[in-house]
Amino acid sequence: MHAVQHAPPPCEEQPGGRYAVEVLEGSTEWRSQVRAPPGTIPGQVSTFGFTPPSHSTAAMSRQLISSEKFPPKPHNCPAVKVAGLVFCAGQTSKGDAKSATTTCLQNLKEVLELSGSSLEQVVKYNVYLADMKDFDAMNEAYIAFLPKNPPSRTCIAAAALPGGVTVEIECIAQV
């Protein structure tokens, strides 16, 4: 993955939406725009298919996502869209792990749809269980929501989820 370091100077657009960038002597960066891949020779001009960030501003635009069903709270927003991604806050539920997982994922589905995304576009889930003994029940419900090519997932025990919550799930998805 090529990470943008900061607002870059202009680069030269090439045919096919590619951009020519020059690797600077003694640097692993292309004009401070993206990290150069291993083995890149200083002074070499390479092309790489990426869309450069806006040259007019260094700040990324953020869109806060909420609705009547999923209102913003003083401490967080249900979802935030930035640069082709949506970051969804954790959805929580009480009760047995299987039904709580179903509720969390159904709520995430609705928040993602508000954001212009979907469960099929999720690239990462983080699952928090009040008790790891519930892993198999959570996993059974979780699998029912997965697309053919599932995203990555982390699942950990969270010692004290608030208010008797048994499952919390958050995700990151493409928009």
UniProtKB/TrEMBL annotation:
Q: Which domain of life is it from?
A: Eukaryota
| InterPro entries xrefs | RutC-like_sf, YjgF/YER057c/UK114
Got a GO cellular component term for this one?
mitochondrion
What Pfam families does this protein map onto?
Ribonuc_L-PSP
Write one Gene Ontology MF term: deaminase activity
Q: Which PANTHER family match?
A: 2-IMINOBUTANOATE/2-IMINOPROPANOATE DEAMINASE RIDA (PTHR11803), TRANSLATION INITIATION INHIBITOR (PTHR11803:SF12)
Q: What is this protein called?
A: Protein mmf2, mitochondrial
Could you tell me which species this protein originates from?
Answer: Saitozyma podzolica
